Amino acid sequence: MNKEIEKKQNEGASAPTQHFIRQIIADDYKTNKWGGRVQTRFPPEPNGYLHIGHAKSICLNFGLAIENNGLTNLRFDDTNPEKESDEYVRSIIEDVKWLGFDWGDRLYYASDYFEQLYDFAVQLIKMGKAFVCDLSPQEIKDYRGTLTESGKESPYRYRPVEENLELFEQMRQGKFPEESHVLRAKIDMASPNLNMRDPVIYRIKYAQHHRTGDKWCIYPMYDYTHCLSDSIERITHSICTLEFEDHRPLYDWVLEELDVFHSQQIEFARLNLTYTVMSKRKLLELVESKVVNGWNDPRMPTISGLRRRGFTPAAIRNFSELVGVSKKESVVDYALLEYCIREDLNKTAQRAMAVLNPLKIVITNYPDDLEEELDAINNPENLEAGSRKIPFSKEIYIEKDDFMENPPKRFYRLAPGREVRLRYAYFITCNEVIKDENGEIIELRCTYDPASRGGASPDGRRVMGTIHWVSARHSKKVELRLYDHLFLKEDPYDFPEGGDVLDNLNPNSLVKIAAFVEPSLMKAKPTERFQFERVGYFCADEYDSNEGQPVFNRTATLRDSWAKIAGKS
Ligand code: ATP
Ligand code: MG
């Protein structure tokens, strides 16, 4: 897997690599299967916020259509009224848009088709291909058989058509309680495929639907709804995840029996990520138990969480391309996702200086009341981003761990008697270490070389390293939120008998600290992204930042563990 991704990285993500779905589409062009048309759809159920797995599906569906001058529909698969809501609908619309995709005027809801779906069901009944069954849910299960044993036919299977029509009508009219009757397709109770053993296609449910209210008290099942929605929208390639492979015979059966437009279902392996749970049910649990602060908590693998964390649409799209499309289940390393955001932000994020763990330095030979404005380049990867002024004065802060009193061999930063470069400022030499009564280092006394202004060597002499800093007098205090994996284990589902994913939570997934930052950062706008030099990528929080007082979320550290994993470093 790593090797494959490495190969793709080297080829450049902009050159799409071949995969089996691209191949199917290319072949369909050759045989003119769809008259040169490509139409896909992204069909979320509005029962939660979208996550990075959905992003893969979105990028795949919209991406394939774009590559082939085709179209993609956004369709809400809203057949479970109790779990669905308008809040989820709105968030999904926002997220797909944010990823950069456009469904034009093709925003659909399966619930828009309820009347049509009902008529199709009546048609199946008339053809003798569906029947009303009075067995209880438990009985239906008991009659179903197992993988090794064939099922038993329902005693209601051979009800006359007229009786079925009447009962189905009465189901719709609300004459029966929930679970008393269902409509089932009449297929084959001996089929080796359990999905073909007279599957339920309608059930009674007295629930408020987010769109149809209480107009309906019978709701079509997913398998029945999905294929017909695809057909109604004349979808050519209906791309879904692998768990639907066993449902494909039913998908095909419904469309064939009704003799309607026959979309082709194609399955691919879902995305899994290390340190991450991806099922909406689990994510909802995290939200409801307040383990996280809502669906858009920056630790959530949701699109809104990643956005709040500082991820860009481009990084997520690139990630979706790099992970590829296959028929084989695999788990992608979270480090690849971080690699993608670093790649993007390295090119686009403005640099700034922030000190997280300050150690004061007094520059003894610097005039007491002098203040200078020094030039700092905004982005060395993109000189068009220009430069800014940063204030310098006699007292500055550096990171505590950029100084060691007794440095080991490979420590290239500040130490007694050593000279280093302050980024964009001056060379300084440490002359004295001041400690408190407990022996803690509380201050350093240094001298600077006025001839090294801007950080350039005045005479060709070299320094051990370059460190970042902020002027003590000018710096501002801000809150940084340092995020880490939400789970401690690569596989959060790895817990002992009777345990739960919650047992694997990382207690340090969020650490809030106060940092000293250069004053220009106080103008950061919500969602604006930065690289704090030598520290990491940060994003001004969209919700908790105030005018002139931003709060920053750590998007990613600068350590590229992916390059190491992929053997690139
Ligand atoms: P979950 O299992 O996370 O609750 P779901 O499959 O129930 O997700 P849907 O709203 O039905 O969620 O998914 C919409 C589309 O996104 C479907 O086509 C589904 O196959 C796809 N999808 C969902 N999860 C993933 C994933 N992890 N990787 C790739 N595609 C996914
Ligand atoms: Mg689903």
What's a concise summary of this model?
Helices cover 27% and strands 22% of the residues. The chain is of the alpha/beta class.
In CATH, what is the homologous superfamily of the largest domain? Answer: HUPs
pLDDT < 50 stretches: none
User: Which range best describes the helical content: under 10%, 10-25%, 25-40%, 40-55%, 55-70% or over 70%?
Assistant: 25-40%
CATH topology label of the largest domain: Rossmann fold
Largest sheet: 7 strands, mixed
Average residue pLDDT? 95
How many helices?
Answer: 14
How much of the sequence lies in strands comes to 15-25%
Strand order of the largest sheet: 10-23-24-25-21-22-11
Shape: elongated
Could you tell me the number of beta strands?
A: 25
Judged by helices, strands and strand pairing, the structural class is alpha/beta
Fold topology:
Blueprint: H1 2-11, H2 20-31, E1 39-42, H3 52-67, E2 71-76, H4 86-98, E3 107-109, H5 114-126, E4 130-133, H6 137-143, H7 161-172, E5 182-185, E6 200-204, E7 218-220, H8 222-232, E8 237-241, H9 248-258, E9 264-268, H10 280-288, H11 303-309, H12 313-323, H13 334-348, E10 350-352, E11 354-355, E12 358-363, E13 372-377, E14 387-392, E15 395-399, E16 419-422, E17 427-435, E18 441-448, E19 466-467, E20 470-471, E21 476-483, E22 510-517, E23 529-532, E24 536-540, E25 551-557, H14 561-565
Parallel strand pairs: 1-2, 2-3, 8-9, 10-23, 12-18, 16-19, 21-25
Antiparallel strand pairs: 4-5, 5-6, 6-7, 11-22, 12-15, 13-14, 15-20, 16-17, 17-18, 21-22, 23-24, 24-25
This protein binds adenosine-5'-triphosphate and magnesium ion.
